Task: inverse folding
C-alpha cells in the first residue's frame, strides 16, 4: 500500500481551512428542586431576570428569583418530566412572543403557538413580552372615541382610543358580553382586537371564538388563551403576551383594542407562583409587587404622539368582585391605575337591565373628549336624569303623594332605563344611538308606554333608514346633529304612525 503525499496534504489543507477556533461556552446549571410549575437551579451565576432558560427535556423556563445560592424558575410547559439533577442552560434571550399581521384571525397560547388546529403561523418578527411603557412625551391626549356600540357605555361612560377602562363586577353579570359586543362593533373601524382569556374554561373560549367568527370579527381579532387547566406561569404571562402583540401594531401607527379577561385570575396565578418561590406574602397573601404586576401592564396602553405614527392601544381590563365588594385589594389597585371603570351591578342584571351598567359607580376620566359632538349634546343630562330617578325611586317606596314635576321625572327615568337596555350581540351604530337619545331627551318618548319603548326604537330606525337616510349620514360624516327641525319632523311623523298602528292593535285584541 503506497502513501500518496498529495492526497494527505490536500486533506490537511482542507481541515485547516475548515478549522474554527471559536469556543462555544454554555452556562449550565443543575436542577435542585422541581414541583408545581416551579424549579430551582444551582450554578446559573449570570442569569438575568426574565431570561429564557432551557431544560434538558426541551421545555423552557423563565428566571424569576435571582438568589445568592440558586435561581427560582417558572416552567413554561411540561414540568412533569423534569427531574432533580437535570441540566438547565441559559439561552441569553429575554422571553419574547411572535408578532405581526400573520397572527390575525388565530387562536394562540401565551407562547405564541397556535392552538386552533390551522397550522403554523408564518412570522419572523418577535417582541419581548415585558417592555417599557411609552414615556410622557411620547403620548398625546385621548380624544378619539372608541365606539362600543352599547348605548349605556357610549353615552354615560365613553371610552377613547388609548384609554384604560376597567370593567368590574361579580361573576355572571355580563362582563365578557360587553367585551365581545365591543369587538363585534369594531368591524370596518380600522381596529385590530386582541382578546386575552385568562383562566377560563376551554369550552367557554371556544364559544367566544365561534361567536366572533359568526359576526365576522375574527377577520381582525387575535385570541390569546391560557385556560384554567394550564400551569400558573402561562396564566401569569398571558396579558403581557397580548400587550406585546398589540404594541407591534400600535408602533406601526395602527389602532388596537386589548381585552384582559380577567386580571383577578392573573393576580391569583401570580400569588401562587410567588408563594411557591417563597416570596414574602402581604395583604390577602398577595406578594408586595402585585400593584406593579398590573401597573406595568396597563401603562403600556397609550395614544402615541404624531411623531411616533399616532397609533393607539386601548385596554379593557376585567376584574371580578365578590358580592359587589369594590374595596377589596385587587379591585382598588386596578381602579387606581385605570382611567375610569364600568361597574356592572348584580341586582340590575337580574332585574332585566342589560347591560347592567351602574351609572352611579361607573365613571370615565376621559369623559366628553371621547365622544363625538352630537353624542355630547344628547347625552349631557342623561347621567343626572338617571341619578335623580334612582333617588326618587327609593323615596317613592314610602308611598307618599307625588307632585306633577316628580311624576314627570320618574316617567322620564323609567324610559331612560328602558332605552339603555340592549340585546346581546346587537351593537348600535353611533348615529342610531344619537337619534334615539335625542328622542328621549327632547320628550318624544314621554307619551310612549314603557313596554313599547324598545319596539318604538327599532321601528324608528327602520323608518329613518327608509325615508330619511340623510339624517343618519349627516351624523355619521359630520359628527354633528342635523337641523333639529328635520329630526323633529322625522320623529313626529313616525310617532303618529306608531300611535295609530298600536291603537289598531290594541282595539283588535280588545275585540278578540
Result:
Amino acid at each position: 500500500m503506497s502513501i500518496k503525499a498529495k492526497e494527505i496534504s490536500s486533506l490537511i489543507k482542507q481541515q485547516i481551512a475548515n478549522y474554527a477556533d471559536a469556543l462555544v461556552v454554555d452556562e449550565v446549571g443543575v436542577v435542585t428542586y422541581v414541583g408545581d410549575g416551579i424549579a430551582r437551579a444551582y450554578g446559573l451565576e449570570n442569569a438575568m431576570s426574565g431570561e429564557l432558560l432551557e431544560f434538558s427535556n426541551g421545555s423552557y423556563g423563565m428566571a424569576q428569583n435571582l438568589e445568592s445560592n440558586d435561581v427560582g424558575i417558572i416552567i413554561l410547559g411540561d414540568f412533569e418530566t423534569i427531574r432533580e439533577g437535570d441540566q438547565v442552560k441559559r439561552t441569553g434571550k429575554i422571553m419574547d412572543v411572535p408578532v405581526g399581521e400573520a397572527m390575525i384571525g388565530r387562536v394562540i397560547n401565551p407562547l405564541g403557538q397556535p392552538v386552533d388546529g390551522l397550522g403554523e403561523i408564518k412570522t419572523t418578527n418577535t417582541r419581548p413580552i415585558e417592555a417599557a411603557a411609552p414615556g410622557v412625551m411620547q403620548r398625546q391626549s385621548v380624544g378619539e372615541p372608541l365606539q362600543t356600540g352599547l348605548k349605556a357605555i357610549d353615552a354615560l361612560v365613553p371610552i377613547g382610543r388609548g384609554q384604560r377602562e376597567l370593567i368590574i363586577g361579580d361573576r355572571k353579570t355580563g362582563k365578557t358580553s360587553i367585551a365581545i359586543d365591543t369587538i363585534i362593533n369594531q368591524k370596518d373601524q380600522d381596529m385590530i382586537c386582541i382578546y386575552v382569556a385568562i383562566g377560563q374554561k376551554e369550552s367557554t373560549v371556544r364559544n367566544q371564538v365561534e361567536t366572533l367568527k359568526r359576526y365576522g370579527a375574527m377577520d381582525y381579532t387575535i385570541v390569546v388563551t391560557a385556560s384554567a387547566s394550564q400551569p400558573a406561569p402561562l396564566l401569569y404571562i398571558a396579558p403581557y403576551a397580548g400587550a406585546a402583540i398589540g404594541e407591534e401594531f400600535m408602533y406601526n401607527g395602527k389602532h388596537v383594542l386589548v381585552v384582559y379577561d380577567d386580571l383577578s385570575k392573573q393576580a391569583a396565578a401570580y400569588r401562587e407562583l410567588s408563594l411557591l418561590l417563597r416570596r414574602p406574602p402581604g395583604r390577602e397573601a398577595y406578594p408586595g409587587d402585585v400593584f406593579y404586576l398590573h401597573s406595568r401592564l396597563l401603562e403600556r396602553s397609550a395614544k402615541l404622539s404624531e411623531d411616533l405614527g399616532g397609533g393607539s392601544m386601548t385596554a379593557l381590563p376585567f376584574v371580578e368582585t365578590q358580592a359587589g365588594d369594590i374595596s377589596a385589594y385587587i379591585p382598588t389597585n386596578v381602579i387606581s391605575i385605570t382611567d375610569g371603570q364600568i361597574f356592572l351591578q348584580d341586582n340590575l342584571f337580574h332585574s332585566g337591565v342589560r347591560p347592567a351598567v351602574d351609572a352611579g359607580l361607573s365613571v370615565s376620566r376621559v369623559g366628553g373628549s371621547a365622544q363625538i359632538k352630537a353624542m355630547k349634546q344628547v347625552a349631557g343630562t342623561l347621567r343626572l336624569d338617571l341619578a335623580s330617578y334612582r333617588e326618587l325611586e327609593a323615596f317613592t317606596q314610602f308611598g307618599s303623594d307625588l307632585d306633577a314635576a316628580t311624576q314627570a321625572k320618574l316617567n322620564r327615568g323609567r324610559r331612560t332605563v328602558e332605552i339603555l337596555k340592549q340585546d346581546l350581540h346587537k351593537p348600535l351604530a353611533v348615529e342610531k344611538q344619537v337619534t334615539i337619545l335625542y328622542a328621549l331627551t327632547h320628550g318624544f318618548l314621554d307619551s310612549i308606554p314603557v313596554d313599547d319603548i324598545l319596539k318604538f326604537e327599532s321601528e324608528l330606525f327602520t323608518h329613518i333608514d327608509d325615508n330619511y337616510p340623510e339624517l343618519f349620514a349627516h351624523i355619521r360624516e359630520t359628527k354633528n346633529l342635523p337641523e333639529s327641525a328635520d329630526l323633529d319632523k322625522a320623529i313626529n311623523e313616525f310617532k303618529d304612525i306608531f300611535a295609530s298602528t298600536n291603537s289598531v292593535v290594541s282595539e283588535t285584541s280588545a275585540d278578540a
